[in-house]
Amino acid sequence: MNKSIHAGLCSTTPLSIGSLLAAAILASAAMAPAAASAQTAPATEAAAPPSETHEIVVTASRREQRLESVPYSISVVDASKLAGAGVTDLASLTQSLPGLSMYDAGARLAGATVPIIRGINATGEPTRGFRNFEQSPVGVYIGNSPVEGYIQLDDIKQVEVLRGPQGTLYGAGSLGGALRILPNAPQLGALTGSIEASVGAVSHADDPSYTVSGVLNIPLGKTLALRVTGKYARDPGFVTAYGLLKTNGTGVTASPVLADPSDPVNSPGVYYNKKDWNYQDSLTTRAALLWQPIDTFKAEFAFLHAYVKGDGGPNVNTDFAGGASPFDANETLPAGGKYSDYTRIDEPFSRNTNLASLDLSYDAGFATLSSTSSIQTTTGETLEDDTYALAGIANGGYLAYYAGVPTNPRFIYDQEFDDHAHTFTQEVRLVSKGGPDKPFDFSIGAFYENQTRTGAWTIAVPGSPERSAAQGCTSQAYTGATAPACQVIANPQDINFQQIDTQRFTDFSVYGELTWHIAPHVQATGGVRHFSQWFTDAQSYEDYTFGTDIPASPHRSTAGKFVGKADLSYEYAPSQFVYALWSQGFRRGGANSVPLTGIFQESPLLASYKPDETNNFEGGFKGHFGNGVNYSIDGFYIKWKNPQIASSLPSGNLAVYNANSATSKGFEAEISGPLPLRGLTYSLSTAFADARLTSDFSYPANNGSGVIVPGLVSGTSGQQLPGSPKFSAGANLQYSAPIAQGYRMTLILNGNYRSTVAMGLASSLGTTSVQRSTDYAVVNASAEIRHGAWRATLYAKNLINSQWVLVPPTQMNELNNLTNEYTVNRPREVGLRLGYTF
């Protein structure tokens, strides 16, 4: 029996450890001798966009360093580049940076999609509107706080992309790398701010896009400053949805309205179509309060709130030839089109994300002692219509159980995914003042995380049980049955399946890195981190249709692990470096709590999964020239042991399991600088990652009919790992020059290319082969004019209005091609932004 799946997140965590550590640092600051109040010169926010010829400073190692001196592959995208590339969130960031990727189905699947670096990912594209079960292979941070959920990138100083395993400094979940999103900090003694608004026309959308954002930095005396930001964005839909049924409410149990209430058995539904269906509204706000009573101590408290809601997704069906509905001959559906889709119900979604953080820092002279405490929650709700998908599986072989006999003309098979996560983290670091004039630099620290994730996956057949009651059915419907064997079985709310899953995870780790300046231009770094982890998963499983009731039974796993790092760097000429690196990444194992008995039973081999580990071997050249040219080139080879794969199994059960081994090998190259024409700059980047399985794997699994079949879930040596392209490239050209007294013009043209992406490894629900995306190329352009505090920007995203298939259909050519649903990129958007800065 095939079925769709979901789960979610929820928790509470005490703050005792964070409070104690915070108090310790505050006490250290209080004992320091008084000093004059720190004053920070206000930034000139109205200045022209920064040139790409300046020297770039990063803080990836927890201390300030020149970009070229960091002995591993790292890219930096500042605010002007984010704006020029049209980057608004993580998904659009991944489209603009080679070597960084993500499945992109809009914010509705933000809980189930994660960034991927260097191809280190073995999980296929999300086939359910669910959160990810395994840890992300890339650590994502806002400032020093880990974060998940959906946020817009607003008022950002820069984004640092750390490629390759970062296990020693960034812990579990940085298997393939880390992303650091660095917001602008409050400024003491400066009253500054900006407002910006935009409006745009999106091809194939009747409604405009628009954004409104603002930043205000307020000094509150000599030692306090408050920075408040906010951004609201409306992304209109561009897909027309056909064949929706009007319902008597909202949510997973809302029943279709009858066109003829006097005939509850044969009445058709009330149908309508919806233009601009897949809209999205986003709101992100952040407030940060800085207190710096003395030069050597500062505290920053920040609270971020993000909310997104919308309907549907960027999905289209171009293959359906048109004709009668497969459920109701009275309803005729039009032929598919470039921006058309078919659904029986609306598919609303929402996600609410909050992050509260406290950063404390004390300069002890020889080193800086700092603490980061954070509490994050994210909650998501997604309604998904799987009516056509269910009817397409096995030529409708399971339809009778849910739609009755004969098929309910108003049949809906919908699913709701609800998830909640509560995460508390505490980190304390002692980082020495770096510099080649000192024989040693060091970083030592401790990290604690406590997370609870809870989710519910609910499937309903609203209205079908009531119809079967009106028919006078006396026994359960099944394939080939006739009345009175026509009863649809569900609970009183028409729910026929519900799974509730709770995960609890605790991580305590200690780490350290030591850099030895062997000679004035030679340094070596060694690092180590030790993890102690505890994980519990408990899942209840109730299927009313097939009389299966499995109470939650906790499955537990523990892990203890050392990971290491070693690198050697040589400055062979001023600001020109060569380096060699070995680094490791680690990710926790866990438990699945899949049923081990009954019609949905799975093999005990799928009841748990092992931790996985990466070993990265890397070498490269980096440099910065006096004329403004920055460059880097590196090659890497990553060995991956026990890669974790999350999948919807052939039975519909969700599970994480391990492959045996994989590798990723390739290179990255970047160069940027000025061109001979004054004001003209460029940047070019490319990445190649050949990520593949290096051995076969095989697991027995339920075939969907209650029978466990050996080797049903498998992978073959040589298969490309899913989720990222082998080759990607990007180019940016920027020209800035005065055009009149007090007026400056900046022109930006950028383009990005991605080769095809595999969607998965092993077979899962409704799949018979691995699908692939098309390759992908998008060009963006903008023209900005600044005059004093004012700026006006004309922009175009996807300038040539190309359409690419980001995710092909999971179920191909079923139900007269009604299951052929393609996820595509957004069409061209042309608009105007106006801004004022003071």
Question: How would you characterize the overall build of this protein?
Answer:
The protein has 838 residues and is mostly beta strands. The chain has one domain (16-39, 68-550, 570-837): Maltoporin, Chain A (Beta Barrel). The chain contains seven helices and 48 strands. The chain has a 22-stranded antiparallel barrel. Strand 28 (522-543) and strand 29 form a beta hairpin. The protein is globular. Residues 1-53 have low confidence and may be disordered.
As for the CATH topology, it is Maltoporin, Chain A
> What percent strand?
over 45%
The helix tally amounts to 7
Number of strand segments: 48
Counted up, domains total 1
Shape: globular
- CATH-defined architecture: Beta Barrel
Biggest sheet, open or closed, and with what strands and sense? 22 strands, antiparallel, barrel
**Radius of gyration, CA atoms, in whole angstroms:** 28 Å
Mean pLDDT: 89
CATH superfamily: TonB-dependent receptor, beta-barrel domain
What is the helix content?
Answer: under 10%
